[in-house]
Design goal:
Elements: E1 4-10, E2 13-20, E3 25-29, H1 37-48, E4 52-56, H2 73-85, H3 88-104, E5 110-115, H4 117-128, E6 133-137, E7 156-161, H5 169-179, E8 185-190, H6 207-225
Parallel strand pairs: 3-4, 3-5, 5-6, 6-7, 7-8
Antiparallel strand pairs: 1-2, 2-4
């Protein structure tokens, strides 16, 4: 399903987003490679499942229009440089602005799903916005943000990779210990998987567990948003 770029009017300026599909809205939160072909294809996949999918360009404050891949060392270096410059708090303001604009356009419910950096943002979206449901895949650094969990007021699902090179075992334990008893949080742990196991074509892609995680996410979003 072909999508198009739209403009989001944020509190600090306008930025672009890729949008496709019809139905309840899902804000798709990017990895560290920008709104690239992988993110656009994910949006198309959510559209095929009956959602309006919107992927905002959250790197716009650094440089608008970033679309790189995970295929070369130079691009990985650029991605980590972008990650180091990224202002998470400003990014969440942009996510909130995207949610608000989508609600104003008439979407009955709005959720969010994020990957890697976007997974962290999905967790914070659950903590800091009025999103109706959020999903985070292999979220980075949320063990440093667990004090915000008390603000979660809508359902949140997390997919944790047991062999995640960017989320060490002690961080995973902190996350699961802190959130497993939270009545609105569902955690799925994939003991043998590494970071980005659900990214098609990625070095750690695992089709079986990616399909399992994605089915869980779709069922969750169908239940909470439709």
């Amino acid at each position: 399903m072909a999508g198009s770029d739209i403009t989001i009017h944020g509190p600090d300026g306008d930025f672009s987003a890729y949008q496709t599909g019809e139905g309840p809205a899902v804000i798709v939160l990017q990895e560290i490679f920008g709104v690239n072909a992988v993110m656009r294809e994910l949006c198309d996949d959510y559209a095929a499942q009956g959602f309006t999918a919107i992927c905002p360009d959250l790197f716009w404050r650094i440089k608008p229009g970033i679309q790189i891949t995970d295929k070369t060392e130079e691009e990985w270096k650029q991605a980590f440089d972008l990650f180091s410059q990224f202002d998470v708090d400003a990014g969440i303001k942009d996510v909130a602005a995207t949610i608000a604009q989508v609600r104003q356009s008439g979407a009955p419910k709005v959720g969010a799903v994020g990957y890697c950096l976007g997974g962290q943002l999905a967790y914070l979206t659950a903590c800091r916005t009025d999103a109706d449901a959020c999903v985070g895949y292999y979220c980075v650094n949320i063990q440093t943000l667990l004090s915000e969990a008390s603000s979660i007021s809508h359902p949140l699902m997390l997919h944790i990779a047991g062999q995640d090179e960017f989320v060490p075992p002690e961080a995973q334990t902190q996350i699961m210990d802190a959130l497993s008893e939270h009545g609105l949080v569902t955690i799925h742990h994939y003991a043998e998987r590494d970071h980005a196991f659900a990214r098609p074509g990625g070095a750690h892609y695992h089709a079986e567990d990616a399909n399992l995680a994605n089915a869980r996410s779709i069922n969750f979003l169908n239940d909470k948003l439709k």
